[in-house]
Each structure stands twice: as structure tokens, then as C-alpha cells.
Amino acid sequence: SSQTNSHLLTSETVSYERDSAWVRRTQTPYDPFASLSTLTHKPVSCPRCSRTVLAPFLQADGKGYSQSNFSITCQCAQPITKELLGLHKFAKNVVKSTAPDTYFAGTLHTPRNAYDTKRGYTIKTRILMLPTFKQTEGSDHVTQILTNVKYDAVRMRTDLSKYMRLRLLTKMMGAYTDDRVFSIDLVGVVLRQASFVKKMVDLGWTDPGYFASEEDVVALQHCVARYHAFLSMMADSPGSFLVPTLDIDLAWHTHQLMASRYQSECLALVGRYVDHDDKVEEGQLATSFDLTCRAWNDRYHVPYMHCGCPLPGDTIGQKLKRLLPSNQTTNELLLPLKSDARAATHPSDHNAVFALHDMSGSLRRRETRKSKAEARRLRDEREGQMVRKDRGVDHGIAFLYPVPMFYYFPGGCFAAGGGVVDGALGCAAVSVVIGFVG
């Protein structure tokens, strides 16, 4: 509430009043670690018979509620899965007309309008008119919808795909993959953001007073200037998949903290609201970073990254460029002297995710990228172009160690930013994704 004392939310020792209120309302200890001993099961409502089933969070066979292969059998002898729970949530969203179910998830936000209620209302109205959502007189509407698609999420998606564009359908249904109350997987978001925070900590940029001196502020000025240049590239290339470096990403994260300004300034500088997608399959991200490096160099005639790490790919254009003479001068004067400033131009890969539904393919592509990077390093050494390591620090190869995430979508598709990456069953590949990280 507006009367809440913000100090209480960050204090190491919580007040007795707050502690007792939490215990009274949740029946669990306030301390998150102490609550682990009591939060062992999740009450789940069976979409078929409405019985409440207590599902263990963790199971030795990997079928616990908090695990990717969740499955439990109800007393009605039917299995309950995350996919079925998501379908049930979607059916309830169809039927209810009051907040928060007035609109479908993913239908209000557009590149130029953060709350397009007219669009959201139109989409829901048209969906309600489809044959799949017709109600038999006297029947429960939610149950009728589930029966119409035979309690099958893939069948629901197939029916909707006949009337909806794939991009909109994927964005909308991505919020209905389980029974969570939020449109996004907050646990996955925290895991991926932790990767970014760790990189900032490793650079020392989160230390108190780190940028206190005028000399150190140069690194931040460099970061902001590059972020502006990155936005300019987005404005001129609305269909491009651009990958930020760590320093640009820091500016991007900081800008988003000022939400109203971020929205208005994106419209003014880029011409649209730039959303951050923090779920991009690592192979797609690696290839796109390679292309971003080239686009940056062609536009500004300066290197995109300075840390000396090899690019993740090797294209025909690269091979051709090595055969041609180059008179390009270096960009040393434009780069702060601090070692961490160089490291900050390393690719920001915390939004890379590992597609567990295609583990063998993902591992194969990862090894291919690793082999290419090693081959390039050896080639540069033979040509007398030793990769530069600042103070002996090896940053590692980008995009080889993403945060694992099982982001299942019915039909085997991998949802990412309103498109589909490495999709199966005829799903299209991503062509337009304008934001990264979260």
C-alpha cells in the first residue's frame, strides 16, 4: 500500500508486526530459507474433476511441480501436467470478463502503445466467436472449451492458428504454459538476470564508489555513448536482431529503470517501444552477435568489441575480408584505458538459453561454435595476431555457457520474443526480434 514503510522491505531484521502478518496470511515462515521445510507441496486443481491435488515440488524422477517434466495422476486417474494446467488457465481467461482476465496476456502491448485496450478487446472478442469456444446450453463453459479440444494444448494451438497470425499466437500462448499467476516465468527471469549481475560484479562496477573519480567516469560515458549509437542502429534497422555488449546492456538496463522515460524516449529516438526479450536460443544469439559486429563496424568504422575474444562465427564475408588489404586504423583512442572497460565490450549473453527440448542439436551446435572459435584463435596466432588479454584475464568464449531453461511450447517450439526459434512441426523461424535481455 501507499502507507508501507519502504525501509521495512529492505531491513535485515523484520518487525514483529510484519513477520506475524506474513505467517497469518500465508501459513509459512517469513524467512525464505525457513519456509523451505514447510513448502514441500503445491496445491493443484485438476482441470478435469476440480479436485485439489498436493503435488510435491521435487521428485526423484524429475516429475515434481518445480521440475520441467512435472506430472502427477489425480484421483480421477487422469494425469496433470504443466501443459494441461496452462490450457486450463487459458480456458478460464476466455470465459472471465473481469480483471485480470479482461484481456489475453500479450495482446495489450504493441511497439507504439504500451496499453492498447482496444486491440486487446478486439482480439478476445474475435476468439470468443470461434467454433472452439462455443458453449452448449446448460454446460460449464470452461469445461466445454476443454472438451472441445479434448484437453489437448496442441489441438488448441492448431485451432487458433487457423485464424491468428503465428507471431501473435506465439506471443499470447507463451503466457499459458502452466498455471502461474504471472505472464512470465519469474524464476527463469531471476536466473538469467543473475548471470548479468555476476558479470557486473566481476567487473567491479557494482562496488560502492567505483566510479567516484573523474577518470573512472570515462568508462560510463563511453558506455552511454555506445548505447546511443546502438539505439540509432535499431531506429534504422527495425527488422534487425541486434545483440548488445555488456556495457551497452548496462546502459539499457539502467534506462529501463526509468519506465515512463524509457517508453517516451524509445518512441522519440527509435520510433517504437523497444522491448527486452531475455530468452533467445544461444545459436541464434551467437550468429546475431557476429552480424551486429559487422553492422556496427560498417556504420561507425570502429570495432564493436575490444576485449580480443574471437567472434562466435565464421562467414564467407569474414574469409573474403581476410584476403583483402585493410587500411583501417585502430580505435584505441576512443576506448577507456581501464581493463574492465575493455571487458565490458564483451557480448552480453545472459539472455542466451539452452533449448532442452532439442538437447542433442543444441550441444552439437555449441561444439561447432567452440571449434570455430578455437580455429580462429590458432589462425590469428599463426598470423602473428595474438588475441589481446587485458591483465591476463580470459573472458571465455561468448554464448557457450547460457542459462539452461526449459521453455516448452506445445508442438515442440521454442518461444522467443514473439517469434519461434528452432521450432518443429512447421513452425517459422524468428525474423524480427528487436530487444534482448530483461
What would you say this structure looks like, in words?
The structure is a single chain. The protein is mainly α and 438 residues long. The protein is 44% helix and 7% strand. The strands form four sheets. Strands 5-6-7 form a three-stranded parallel sheet. It has a two-stranded antiparallel sheet with strand order 1-2. It has a two-stranded antiparallel ribbon with strand order 3-4. Strand 3 and strand 4 form a beta hairpin. The longest helix is centred in the last third of the chain and has 24 residues, at 359-382. It is globular and about 75 Å long. Mean pLDDT is 74; it is low at 308-337, 350-357 and 386-438.
Observed structural traits:
16 helices; mainly alpha; 3-stranded parallel sheet; two-stranded antiparallel ribbon; 7% strand; disordered C terminus; 44% helix; 438 residues; single chain
Separation of termini? 26 Å
Major pleated sheet:
3 strands, parallel
Beta content comes to: 5-15%
- The sequence of SSEs as H and E is HHHEEEEHHHHHHHHHEHHHEHEEE
How many β-strand runs? 9
As an assembly, this protein is: single chain
Give the overall average pLDDT.
74
Shape: globular
Strand order of the largest sheet: 5-6-7
- Which stretches of 5+ consecutive residues score pLDDT under 50? 308-337, 350-357, 386-438
Which structural class best describes the helix and strand composition?
mainly alpha
**From the alpha-carbon coordinates, what is the Rg to the nearest angstrom?**
25 Å
Number of helices: 16
> Helicity level, as a percent range?
40-55%
